Request: fold
Amino acid sequence: MQKVVITVVGKDKVGIMAKVCTYLADNGINILDISQTIVSGYFNMMMIADMGEKIAEFEKVKSELDEMGKSIGVQIRLQREEIFDMMHRI
Amino acid sequence: MINISEVIETNDMIQHENLDVRTITMGISLFDCMDSSLEECSTKIYDKICKKAGKLVETGEHISQSYGIPVVNKRISVTPIATVGSSACKTEEDYVKLAETLDKAAENVGVNLIGGYSAMLAKGNTEKEMIFLNSIPEALKRTSRVCSSVNVGSSRTGINMDAVRRMGDIVLETALKSHGTESLGAAKLVVFCNAPDDNPFMAGAFHGITEGESVINVGVSGPGVVKKALEAARGADFEVLCETIKRTAFKITRVGQLVAREAASMLNVPFGIVDLSLAPTPAIGDSVAEILQEIGLEYPGAPGTTAALALLNDQVKKGGVMASSYVGGLSGAFIPVSEDQGMIDAVEAGALTLEKLEAMTCVCSVGLDMIAIPGDTPAESVAGIIADEMAIGMINNKTTAVRLIPAIGKTVGDSLNFGGLFGYAPVMPVNRFSCEKFVNRGGRIPAPIHSFKN
Reply:
């Protein structure tokens, strides 16, 4: 399993989730967990997903998500999950 | 599974609190480049560095992309050149040629600094090593990426006072030769006691003779993260304060451990150590001085500063050792003046003096770092400052270092402006009384009593 964390931060509006999920589905990336919260008035969404073999195209997916974020006015980040595991789990 | 608050915490550290991987430093042994012909030696050095480190920068970029954390510097350290060049080099100019080779190789692989133009003289020095020392000012003038360090003492051997005295001259000459660039040459020259073999941070990085063929050492830094965490502990007692620092240091070091392992595996080079140092930069919110202020000091230098720094340094180490099995290098808090806006402010406010900084070095991870002194300071006084700092290291079994920048043509009230990571430095007054007769005695200071642990 190639776990990644996708975070979306920005002003809440209709269709953010739909866009991101559609993109992931089209690219065969399986969502394992989703949660969201509001921090200092900003919409924060986090997804844990399994990129599977798509991990080879990590940088392409990352830049496409980045572009999509810009087009809808939010910031979308794609990161490998290990950095969070290392920091928060012993 | 990881939860959203943990993800937000990590990303806040990176985006708002300047958490970064300060450096991935590849250590490369140059022992097999030794040759009696200067040309051969130089070619072998160039080829070996280019071959070993060819993918270093690319790897750093890749890791940065994958984990979403900046990898600020990619650097190289090599076996001390005084040793590597001892057969090939007959003159100072020969050694300078090797410095130029290092510079060219660093440029070729795309790293901004390369360390190891160094000599290990803790107990004594050979004739060649003296020639090497004399070559340092010219080498630092003619190169832009090369960093130099000289180890002049250790807790095991005592202090080589002949080398200390000579370094007083060398520091001044180096500043003089780079007069046109705000004496920047001197910012790339460190004098050490108990120099670690695996320090990834410049300017003092070199690939020690105890090291293997090549190694990846990683330095992580995050003074801003510690500062931010401490904001939540305002008014709390020391137990809470220490616990907060320790937890934060643990988290930061774990990131270093991850990056070091990944870089080592991608480059097929053994993983060496993670160095968790709170290394400030001139950027706002990336300051060790601000941590000291958050702990409760009006300015660094106020009474209580040494205690606050001791506590900080110790908690950083405690958090760090839990996070990685191989913590090394200089791990702790750096207190450079020019690279830390809070320190500069403290000097300008009159809160922080050279003498207080010296006291602080007894408990911090390195020493007198990036301090501008008047350009007319006598070489003997520079040597005296070095000797004081080396003595602190020798007696306390710790690494100490001196990186002074004589501001040629300037005096107290003026400042040096290096720009970039090196920042700017207000010229600080030096005690004007002489130590000439002391530093000119010649010979060495014997090893301290606690070195006899056989």
Notes: Residues 238-267 of chain B form the longest helix (30 residues). Chain B touches chain A at residues 1-11, 65-69, 251, 254-255, 257-258 (CB under 8 Å). Chain B has a mean pLDDT of 95.
